């Protein structure tokens, strides 16, 4: 029996994510594609200020350590795709790594594959469609 197994499936992991990411956002972390299941955590501050008011910089983030979020690495998710290019079922969807915005173009290989459309996309910018994550 293996004694070094940490997670059986590894479908959802706590990972460090860029600032400004919230639950439901697509993200690329190194070579991993995912969708945030929780907001990015900020738990290194008190949830309340000295006067008893809520500290707006605090974020429980699903119990993750500061800077991390729970990230789904598999599945089909409803996600906005920024470009006005149409897509058919099975067509590739790419991610702009600098902004974590989904697009229909690979930009001459600069934008890595994020997943595939599982429903058609019209020529509407930022249209929400179902995308299957690939890793």
Task: Please summarize what this structure is.
The protein is mainly beta and 135 residues long.
Query: What's the average pLDDT?
Result: 91
Largest sheet: 5 strands, antiparallel
Secondary-structure-derived class? mainly beta
Order of helices and strands: EEEEEEEEE
Distance between the termini: 27 Å
Query: Can you tell me the overall shape?
Result: globular
Fraction of residues in helix:
under 10%
* Structure annotation, total helices: 0
Radius of gyration: 17 Å
Number of domains: 2
Spatial arrangement of strands, main beta sheet: 5-9-8-6-7
Poorly predicted tracts of residues: none
Strand content: 25-35%
Number of strands: 9
Molecular structure report:
With 135 residues, the protein is an all-beta fold. It folds into two domains: 12-72, no CATH class; 76-133, no CATH class. Helix content is 0%, strand content 33%. It has no helices and nine strands. It has a five-stranded antiparallel β-sheet, with no helix packed on it. A hairpin with a 4-residue loop joins strand 6 (92-96) and strand 7. It is globular, with a radius of gyration of 17 Å. The two termini are 27 Å apart. The relative contact order is 0.21. The mean pLDDT is 91.
């Amino acid at each position: 029996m293996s004694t070094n197994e940490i997670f059986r499936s590894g479908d959802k992991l706590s990972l460090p994510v860029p600032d400004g990411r919230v639950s439901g956002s697509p993200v690329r972390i190194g070579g991993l594609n995912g969708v945030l299941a929780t907001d990015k955590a900020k738990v290194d501050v008190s949830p309340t200020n000295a006067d008893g008011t809520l500290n707006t910089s605090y974020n429980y983030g699903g119990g993750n350590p500061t800077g991390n979020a729970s990230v789904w690495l598999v599945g089909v998710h409803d996600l906005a795709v920024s470009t006005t290019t149409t897509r058919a079922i099975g067509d590739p969807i790419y991610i702009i790594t600098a902004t974590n915005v989904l697009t229909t173009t690979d930009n001459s290989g600069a934008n890595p594959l994020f997943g595939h459309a599982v429903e058609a996309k019209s020529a509407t910018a930022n249209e929400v469609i179902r995308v299957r994550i690939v890793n």
